[in-house]
Amino acid sequence: MKFSNAYSLKDIANIINCEYVGDALFSITGMNEIHVVEKGDIVFVDHPKYYDKALNSAASVILINKVVDCPEGKALLISEDPFRDFNTLTKHFKPFEKAHAAVAQTAQIGEGTIIQPNVFIGNNVTIGKNCLIHPNVAIYDHTIIGDNVIIHAGTVLGADAFYYKKRAEGFDQLVSVGRVIIKDNVGIGALCTIDKGVTGDTTIGEGTKIDNQVHVGHDTIIGKKCLIASQTGIAGCVVIEDEVTIWGQVGTTSGITIGEKAVILGQTGVTKSVEGGKTYFGTPIEESREKLKQLANIKRIPEILTKLK
Fold first, then answer.
1. Per the residue annotation, which of 134, 142, 215, 218 is the catalytic one?
2. 276 and which of 95, 122, 192, 260 could share a cystine (Cβ 3.0–4.6 Å)?
3. CATH 3.10.20.90 fits 108-292, yes or no
4. How far is CA 271 from CA 107, 143, 181, 242, 282, in A?
5. Helix (H) or strand (E) holding 301
6. Catalytic annotation present for 218
7. What are 11-40's pLDDT values in tens digits?
């Protein structure tokens, strides 16, 4: 998330009432999660396991819960609770906008696009030309949809990320202010849910087709001309490269990459990154031929045990 204007380190520290290390006039231009940070951004870290990763990231300012040596050319914001204060900054710079109509006045809808009854289109949504949006679709604020896109009934674009911090009193949610971006010629089935990024974008690439009842988690990037069958669940921060085929009831863990032109067979659990150009099956995931050989050998166990007697 980029700010509309640059702010000083002192300005940001005053908003969250914390100490800072660095030049009071140090310029800050945005805030983002670790996987999408750029120069000028704030990133937060609240666990020693990730201190080095945050301090050595592209971020210019690290919101951290410990006084550490400040890397050259960067600044620190010292907070008792970086998760809480990151949320405070998110709400300050991008507060929730209440809807005042089923189709917001700030929405832009392209020529030839058909909007069926009971569709909700939020603030600052952009929809391209010749799209077809079926009934009861909900399109949250700031979503961008390209040309020639079809979205079937009951689909939701832009719900919050499933991202929580466990506390003694319960779970505290990280506030989501990212976007969903749907490129040209995408087809999305009925009752799909595509979550927005926390501070960045969840992106569906050009020409990709998604079946009914598919979930796509926050900040995931799906490439061009992919096929994703029903009841697939894709976690947050996944990268699916171009022309990947995912069959039904597949589930993934977060933060993995599925390589270009890979095929994931039905009911597979994608527990790690996999190379492109191969077919995979099973949980834990393996190349399908090897996995099927293993299953065949399991069936032979009684026969083998009989021979050993």
1. 218
2. 260
3. no
4. 39, 29, 26, 20, 10
5. helix 301-308
6. yes
7. 999 999 999 999 999 999 999 999 899 999
